[in-house]
Amino acid sequence: MVTLPYPLVDLDLAAPLDRHRATVLPEWIDWNGHMNVGFYVVAFDKATDTLCTQLGVGWEYTREKVGMTFVLEAHVTYDREVREGDPLRITTQVLDYDTKRVHYFHTMHHGSDGWVAATNELILMNIDYETRRSAPWPPETYRRLELMAAAHATLPRPDKAGRTIAIKRR
After folding, report:
1. For FRET with 38, which of 5, 22, 103, 118 sits at 20 to 30 Å CA-CA?
2. pTM to 2 decimals?
3. What is the pLDDT of residues 148-163, one digit of tens each?
């Protein structure tokens, strides 16, 4: 059984998880005067780090050579532009999970005005550090996933979850 050789943060069962904050940095701005598409993904990736820390599989998990996490798939929607200096608040909802994966949904809000700027839907997989192959979550991580998923089960499924990309014809 894999144990985690480092202290874990107290599990936050808020629905949705609402812990990640950021600010749009000057280097994230493109020639259109708003945040470049790639930096939306960077901001969402930092929110994934926040989720992983909650689950006990954050930076220490890899640093201590216990395991790693890899994103298998990601979908981003861009709803409204954000500009340099704008505060960001990213919430996270667990949609589903199994013994090796978690399916979750980030929503990027303007940090002070509250409107939705973007969304990011992902599937993350647990990886064995030595083999770099998929592996079951550590027991404590799985327990935390169960609790978080149960807390998030009361939330409505995001409208943009499960979308496909296509040009809609009339």
Report:
1. 103
2. 0.95
3. 999 999 999 999 999 9
